[in-house]
Specification:
The protein is of the alpha+beta class. Strands 2-1-5-3-4 form a five-stranded mixed β-sheet. Strand 1 and strand 2 form a beta hairpin. The chain is globular, with a radius of gyration of 12 Å. The structure holds FE2/S2 (inorganic) cluster (FES). The site of FE2/S2 (inorganic) cluster (FES) has 13 residues, from loops.
Length: 106
């Protein structure tokens, strides 16, 4: 099991137990966590799964690939250094992730 802590733009926090191998986007959508749309289902073509990765999670999440990096230029809220597309972050067993969702995804 993995744990994902989602902090919304208004500071509301939701903690979800996720399945290893699932993405942070899939875990949010499956559990009705607000703030992540995931319109394309994780095929890296919508950028509606934008999140800001907390400092303690950045090493675990890794860096975006080239295509993800390009897609991050098209997010509804401007990207930051800690931006990732959450469909590209797969949960590893026994790990805890912390992300903040932007105010808008569309
Ligand atoms: S769900 Fe579409 S790019 Fe992540």
């Amino acid at each position: 099991m993995s744990t994902v802590i989602y902090t919304a733009d208004d500071g509301t926090t939701t903690t979800i137990d996720g399945r290893p191998g699932d993405s942070i986007m899939e875990t949010a959508v499956r559990n009705g966590v607000p703030g992540i749309v995931g319109e394309c289902g994780g095929s890296l073509s919508c950028a509606t799964c934008h999140v800001f990765v907390a400092p303690e999670t950045r090493e675990l999440a890794g860096d975006p690939g080239d295509l993800e990096d390009e897609m991050l230029d098209g997010t509804a809220v401007d990207r930051r250094d800690e931006s990732r597309l959450s469909c590209q972050i797969k949960l590893q067993d026994g790990c805890e992730y912390h992300v903040t969702t932007p105010s808008d995804q569309l």
